[in-house]
Amino acid sequence: MADAQLHEGSEGQVRGDAETDGRQRVERRRNGTGGDSPTEILTRLPALVVLERIPVPTIAMARDGSILFANTAFADMVGYQQDRLTGAAFPQVFNTEPAAFSALSGVEALANMVVELQHNEGWTVRAKMSKSALMRRDDPVVLVTFENLTERLWVDEA
Q: Region entry Disordered: which residue ranges (predicted)?
């Protein structure tokens, strides 16, 4: 990811602003004092920062199947820039799609299964998709992770 530039905030707080470089802009903050406990720091950490920092390919989708967020690991796995994935529809990235798809029913139908994703360069990425981390039926968003199995499946088929 691009280097971060540090800026002094109005209250003496330091924050880092990531350069976009075609990727989604995720604000990183370091609020508070040096005496904050790890729990205090964790409770103030924005969710999108956490999702961006984890090295596991992760996306958040709305109920209609539009991608709301894709972290760098997911964008790298499918060969797209993050900003091109935001707003994309499920069928634009996924080759595997159940009939009468909605994001919730699609995730439930494909949870813990190997799905086919369309790489930007035209080839197929095979990945195991998790269940949604957001479990309530009334959650307006699904959040899933992927384990890239493409290379492993090529070796197994040989």
A: 1-39
Q: Tell me the fold of 51-148.
A: Beta-Lactamase (3.30.450)
d(CA 24, CA 153): 31
Q: Cβ(57)–Cβ(42) under 8 Å?
A: no
**Upper half-sphere CA count for residue 118 (Cβ side, 13 Å):** 13
The structural domains of the chain, with segments of one domain joined by +, span 51-148
Q: Which two tokens stand for residue 149?
A: 């199995």
Tens digit of pLDDT at every position of the chain (158 positions): 333 332 333 333 333 444 445 555 555 555 556 788 888 887 888 989 999 999 999 999 887 888 999 999 999 999 999 999 999 987 788 875 544 455 556 666 677 888 899 999 999 999 999 988 886 777 888 899 999 998 876 665 55
Give the global pTM: 0.70
Tokens for 61? 């989708």
DSSP per-residue string spanning 15-76: EEEE--TTS---EEEE-S-TT--HHHHHHHS-HHHHHHHSSS-EEEEETTSBEEEE-HHHHH
Residue length, the chain? 158
